Backbone:
């Protein structure tokens, strides 16, 4: 029997910071994109930061702590389907790392956000503002990418809503709180190896974040 009070570190600090910064910036980008005008300058900055975060997460997926590594949460639609159909609503069930449903939404969100943030610098607003990579393509292509950027944001919104709905499903139907661990890093009542989250790994994350930011800065100032 596993004691409910046992605390196990699941999400390292870099993953948690990545998550909440990304969530805040996605909301900020959506708002500033909708406001347009002078706000587009902030929309660009926010988009570059999101791009840097995504490059960081890609690197972290290979070099981060146990549960942050891609190899430890490979997507499985059949497992997700089994979880959705299982009748465990009365049972308290705690999963280490990403939940089965969460895994799919994480990959979908990261992919759609990567598409959105990469297209951004190729777009124009039809008047005075254009991204730094518009000069590398024809204006017809830039217009097409601007349309794609416009519609893809609704996919971002839909997947974010699905993501939050999946978290709510776990809370209400499965009695599993996934939100607190994403804040504190720890899950309770779990028999699983703890994720590394000390100074060494945090310094490694800081170096990778600086590298990711540097790469994006270099590319958007070409
Ligand atoms: C109230 C808002 C949100 C809550 C409560 C929330 C909560 C969570 C939780 C609990 C997880 C872990 C899921 C699991 O255990 O499998 C997670 C992961 C994740 N969420 Fe959210 N989330 C929110 C908003 C967002 C937004 C706006 C985005 C981006 C559009 C986002 C992107 C992600 C990503 C990419 C991961 C995977 C983290 C990683 O492995 O690096 N989340 N979220």
Residues:
């Amino acid at each position: 029997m596993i004691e409910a009070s046992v605390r196990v570190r699941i999400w390292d600090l870099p993953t948690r910071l990545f998550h909440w910064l990304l969530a805040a910036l996605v909301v900020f980008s959506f708002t500033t994109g909708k406001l347009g005008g002078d706000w587009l300058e902030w929309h660009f900055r926010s988009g570059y930061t999101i791009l840097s975060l995504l490059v960081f997460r890609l690197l972290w997926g290979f070099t981060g702590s146990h549960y942050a590594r891609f190899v430890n949460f490979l997507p499985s639609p059949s497992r997700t389907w089994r979880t959705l159909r299982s009748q465990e609503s009365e049972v308290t069930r705690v999963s280490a790392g990403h939940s089965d449903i969460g895994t799919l939404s994480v990959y979908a969100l990261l992919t759609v956000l990567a598409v959105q943030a990469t297209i951004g610098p190729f777009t124009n607003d039809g008047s005075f503002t254009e991204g730094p990579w518009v000069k590398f393509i024809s204006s017809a292509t830039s217009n097409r990418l601007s349309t794609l950027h416009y519609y893809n944001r609704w996919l971002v919104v839909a997947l974010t809503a699905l993501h939050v709905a999946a978290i709510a499903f776990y809370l209400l139907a499965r009695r599993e709180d996934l939100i607190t661990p994403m804040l504190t890093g720890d899950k309770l009542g779990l028999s699983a190896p703890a994720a590394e989250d000390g100074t060494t790994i945090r310094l490694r994350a800081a170096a990778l974040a600086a590298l990711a930011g540097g790469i994006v800065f270099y590319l958007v100032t070409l």
Notes: The two ends are 58 Å apart (CA to CA). The mean pLDDT is 92. Helices lie at 13-35, 40-63, 77-85, 100-119, 139-172, 179-184, 199-220. The beta strands are 7-9, 186-188.
